[in-house]
Design brief:
two-stranded antiparallel sheet, mainly alpha, 66% helix
């Protein structure tokens, strides 16, 4: 900024009440204008420096979340491919069978979809809602060219499902560009034939149980990390530097080892013929015939994930404990408190910021983990994230995977808001 020069008022101006001359810079620009320009330049410079980070967050975080949320309600393949049928079904009251005009519209849509090779996506989408619809749609698209009007008789001759009102009610319900069917499936609900929302058959109700299992196992893992990590963090904060540095290396050592290697090592440790079972048999705790199954179940998931996530609890606790002055404990002891009371009533309350930071960090990581449960969890140790990966990679039901992921994200955000309301996010310290 150019050096500002103040023009002094003429002598006697103060006594005569004449207005003083405005302050200007060396080039004659008013000082206020020059300050505003400088502040604007500083803001533009700061924005330019943060722009790469903003673009990175947008493309790697915000856009995937938006895409996931959109996929959870996207139903455009049906709406675009069966657009004639969707328009014709708007006037159908859902009773009996549709008119010949609706059948004719469906025949045209099937011909065009077969020609454009888009019938597969529609067939798969409808099959998510009603098993068997894929074969109905694919077979009808292949054979429609061999038939002629009247289309009602022709389609029913191709597949008897076209003569059932439930087929047409399903197509009408799922012919919009937006659908909430994925969210209903994600909470073990579905549409009945009359359009009402009902519970899935008991043998298909899996996701609500998985959500609850994921929640309580994440809470248990967080609690185990707190119980195990609190003493370690206390030692790190109070040991002499020589010993504390060695202990810190041991805490950070897992970060230098591949996650796959760490998880695989737990399989070796926990299996029936593994190290722990052999050790317990050797010292006589259990018999050779009474070996404990500790892998491919919930025990394996709890043990492996606790060990993997433990550093994420220790480090926030250590960063807070390191800043607690020893004088507080000495003052409590001098006022008559025994060591246990002084520790519980004076020291522990000052660590709550670290407890909160480590707890929410470990819980959020645990609730979205899927590699470790997939390797050591077996059937009973699987979490909801494993089923998200299954639908993304194997069943290719991306809509259901997106809806489950969106519900999981919403649940984490609710817990975050509750934490902010009860504790305050401004009190959280990560180091």
């Amino acid at each position: 900024m150019a050096q500002a020069e103040a023009t002094l008022p003429a002598s006697g101006s103060a006594s005569t009440g004449a207005p003083s001359t405005a302050l200007t810079t060396a080039d004659g620009t008013p000082l206020k204008v020059s300050i505003r320009r400088a502040m604007r330049r500083n803001k533009l410079l700061a924005f330019g420096l943060t722009l790469p980070l903003l673009l990175f967050i947008t493309f790697s975080f915000l856009m995937p979340i938006f895409e996931m949320t959109f996929n959870s309600v996207d139903n455009r393949p049906v709406a675009n491919t069966l657009h004639r049928s969707a328009a014709a079904l708007q006037s159908w009251d859902g009773q009996g069978l549709p008119s010949e005009a609706v059948y004719a519209a469906m025949a045209e849509d099937l011909k065009q979809a077969a020609e454009e090779r888009s019938i597969g996506r529609v067939a798969t989408r409808l099959n998510y809602q009603e098993s068997g619809m894929r074969s109905v749609m694919m077979g009808s698209a292949r054979m429609i060219e061999r038939h002629e009007p009247p289309w009602k008789e022709a389609l029913i001759d191709i597949n008897a499902a076209w003569g059932e009102g439930s087929t047409w009610r399903l197509i009408k319900r799922e012919s919009g560009a937006i659908t909430f069917s994925y969210y209903l499936n994600a909470v073990d609900m579905t549409y009945a034939d009359d359009g009402s929302i009902v519970a899935q058959p008991e043998w298909r109700q899996i996701y609500v149980k998985l959500f609850w299992r994921t929640a309580w196992m994440s809470i248990l893992i967080t609690a185990l990390c707190l119980v195990l990590g609190f003493p370690i963090a206390y030692l790190l904060a109070n040991l002499p530097s020589r010993h504390a540095n060695l202990l810190m290396i041991l805490v950070l050592l897992p970060f230098w080892t591949s996650l796959l290697v760490r998880t695989s090592s737990w399989i070796v440790m926990l299996q029936n013929e593994g190290v722990l079972n052999d050790l317990m048999v050797w010292i006589g705790v259990i018999s050779d015939d009474g070996r404990i199954q500790m892998v491919y179940n919930r025990i394996g998931t709890l043990v492996a994930m606790t060990q993997i996530l433990l550093p994420f609890m220790i480090l926030p606790l250590y960063s807070v404990m390191k800043g607690i002055s020893p004088s507080y404990m000495r003052a409590a002891r001098s006022l008559g408190a025994n060591p246990l009371v002084a520790f519980w009533r004076v020291y522990v309350p000052q660590t709550l910021a670290g407890v909160g930071a480590g707890g929410i960090l470990v819980f959020i990581l645990a609730i979205g983990y899927y590699i470790t449960p997939a390797l050591v969890g077996g059937q009973s140790g699987q979490l909801i994230s494993n089923y998200i990966a299954y639908h993304m990679q194997q069943s290719l039901n991306w809509g259901l995977a997106a809806s489950i992921g969106t519900i999981l994200l919403a649940g984490v955000m609710v817990l975050y808001l509750i934490y902010n309301r009860l504790v305050g996010i401004d009190k959280m310290k990560l180091g």
